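From the pipeline queue, job 12 of 40. The input is one protein chain; the requested action is below.

Action: predict structure.
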Amino acid sequence: MQSPDSKISPAIVKAVLLLARRLRSERPEGAAPLSLLSLLGTLHRLGEMPATRLAAEERLQPQSLTRMIGILEEKDWIARRRSDADRREILIAITPEGKRVLSRDIEARRVWLEGAMEETLDERQRAVLMEAAGIMLKLAGSDHGRVDEG
């Protein structure tokens, strides 16, 4: 016998993937690659950190991260500085320019989403979607089934 969730989960996966694809298509012309924006988003959300932690947060190999950090630094979207606590450690932080780039990208998608919700959904559906968003954030924070990479 199947659990009730075995019917719900495929629908959620499909909906999330299709909405994510649509949101990606609504990005500004000439926007930065999503891989770089992901790094900026992590730095904006969690604050400055060493490259090893950034790699772990983004689930990247250090070699891939090194190349991406170089690009971000060249564009002045991040800055590196020595840690006050451990002078051997280099911390990476998002710059004001990096925050501007990230904000521009997010804003374009937010504007599209708000317009689409206004045009497509009634008030009750928007309230349900708001509640679902909170639930989905809770799921996104779950460590269920996560395999730690030693």
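Job complete. The beta strands are 49-50, 78-82, 90-94.
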